[in-house]
Amino acid sequence: MEAHRVRSGDPGQPRSAPALRASRGGRGARAGRARGGRRKAGAHLQPRARDRAADAGRQREGARRRDPRIPARGRGVNVRRVVVVGGGVTGLVVAYRLLSAQKDARFEVTLLESRPRLGGNIQTEREGGFVIDGGPDSFVVAKPQATDLCKELGLGERLIVTTPKNRRVYVPRRGALHTLPEGLVLAVPTRFLPFAKTPLFSLPGKARMALDLVLPKRPKEKGDESIGSFLQRRLGKEAVDILGEPLLGGIYAGDVDLLSIRSTFPQLAALEDNHGSLIRGAIAERRKKGTTKGPPPSPFHSLLGGMGELIEALARRIEKAGGDIRVGAPVVSVERSSGADASAPPRWVVRHGARDGQTESIEADDVVMAAPANAAASALGDVDAELGALLRGIPYLSTATIVLAYARPDVPHPLDAVGVVIPKDERRRILAATFISSKWTGRAPQDAALVRVFVGGHRDPGALAATDEALVSLAREELGSLIGVRAAPMLARVFRYEQANAQPIVGHAARVRRIRDISRRLPGLYFAGAAFDGVGIPDCVRQANEAAAAVAAR
């Protein structure tokens, strides 16, 4: 009845292997230059298992004896048992905060992850000089929580920025690749000359965007609206089609006519609220930050060895502090239990699966749900009917990334950009392509190029029904059309994210507020993660910090 426990000192070093590997939460298959096939492979961040439950118990108790901060039961110390459901970055940060930030060390923490690896959507593989991020490869600098966490974990010297000379972005239009004009802030132009000269927009389209300067603002009291409605009202249809849909909607792989502007890009809504114009507001914000010599600072950070380094560092800290991490432990149910003492506050019983097909129960004072909303709804069952309906009402989309490595001489394009974003009306079968080896330093050997292609999302919800070989062929065909590369790749990886992209649609903020209201009626139950208050890594870290603080304050 033992789930796969992460072994102390082995937080899950990424594993990899030679040519086509597909990753579905840890499973993989590969193909070489000439031929390929699907086969089982080791999971990224796959920890080694303990052989016996008794050994695991001895190790945990031994950790408590070795570390005076971790209290042992029965020694007069008030120990609170906390179960964290979900081993993505949110759940890991919650566990880390509870175990390391409390001076009296009164928490005993168990983290449960259904998959055989940690990290959620973050997956990193390293092989032959390549650093391959299947999921998120960076985080925004403007929100400091992730940067601060990396520094706290000793990863400060591992932080890297996008290559300054390659920060442009291409957009295909009328059979050619054009760069987005300089001075674009999200979808808002802030510099006149680059905007006036760009061939991406028609003259009427540019004139319509300029009307933002004089159009009246929409009263905030009118409530939420979609990204598409917001941008079309302020900047016009061309701005939606060429900028909003591929750039803003692309972050979520979602439909801009459904996604909430206030839940996805509240900073854009604030420009209208505070300045009456997106253009005036963006220019004012830029001036407030001042000017610097040389290229502007990178808006993104990554880690030299890929984003998996953050997951590995968190797992090490949790294990060192005596935390119990269990992978391959899907949560079956989370139920309330009053216990034997009717006067005591209700506790929670968490049942999870184990490697032998049996289930194990954990009684807890607090449960932090850091899993996807649909998984949380399933686990909570009948705890609260309205809560379950609200959680199930958060939609998800599926995506896949195809990572291809080429010999650099085989790629005729200079790859002098972050990559290419694809407007929907271009009718291509991919969402975007990132030139990974140009975007970041140290991602590929000097004589190689690494490119990542995105498919699926709302444009092609059936994309993941294709085989790995078919997805690789699709990516190769599209890259051949876009950047002229026809040679076979040196290696290929396919990463699948089925129902893994939360969609904050119009009304999302009100839904989340109601979820929080209901959870306050259920003492000891907390929610955090990409389904709720922001999908980016800094947003997840912030929510994890808040959830850990709420647990500590109860």
> What is the CATH topology of the largest domain?
FAD/NAD(P)-binding domain
**How many individual β-strands?**
26
Q: Order of strands across the widest beta sheet?
A: 2-25-21-24-23-22-11-12
CATH superfamily of the largest domain: FAD/NAD(P)-binding domain
The overall number of domains is 3
Radius of gyration: 24 Å
Arithmetic mean pLDDT = 87
Helix fraction by DSSP (H/I, runs of at least 4): 25-40%
Which geometry do the CA atoms define? globular
Main sheet characteristics: 8 strands, mixed
The CATH C-level name of the largest domain is: Alpha Beta
Uncertain runs with pLDDT below 50, 5 residues or more? 7-18, 25-76
Q: Structural class, from helix and strand content? A: alpha+beta
CATH architecture level-2 label of the largest domain: 3-Layer(bba) Sandwich
Q: Helix count?
A: 17
What is the oligomeric state here? Answer: single chain
Distance between the termini: 32 Å
- Proportion of strand residues: 15-25%
EC number: 1.3.3.4
Pfam family, one: Amino_oxidase
Pathway: Porphyrin-containing compound metabolism
Keywords: FAD, Flavoprotein, Heme biosynthesis, Oxidoreductase
Structure description:
- Helix 2 (89-100) links the parallel strand 5 and strand 6.
- This protein has 3 domains: 4-13 and 45-119 and 308-394 and 506-553, FAD/NAD(P)-binding domain; 180-289, Orthogonal Bundle (protoporphyrinogen ix oxidase, domain 3), CATH 1.10.3110; 396-502, Alpha-Beta Complex (Polyamine Oxidase, Chain A, domain 2).
- The strands form 7 sheets. Strands 2-25-21-24-23-22-11-12 form an 8-stranded mixed β-sheet.
- It starts with a strand and ends with a helix.
- It is globular.
- It is an alpha+beta fold.
- The longest helix is centred in the C-terminal third of the chain and has 17 residues, at 537-553.
- GO terms for molecular function: oxygen-dependent protoporphyrinogen oxidase activity.
- Residues 48-70 have a biased composition (Basic and acidic residues).
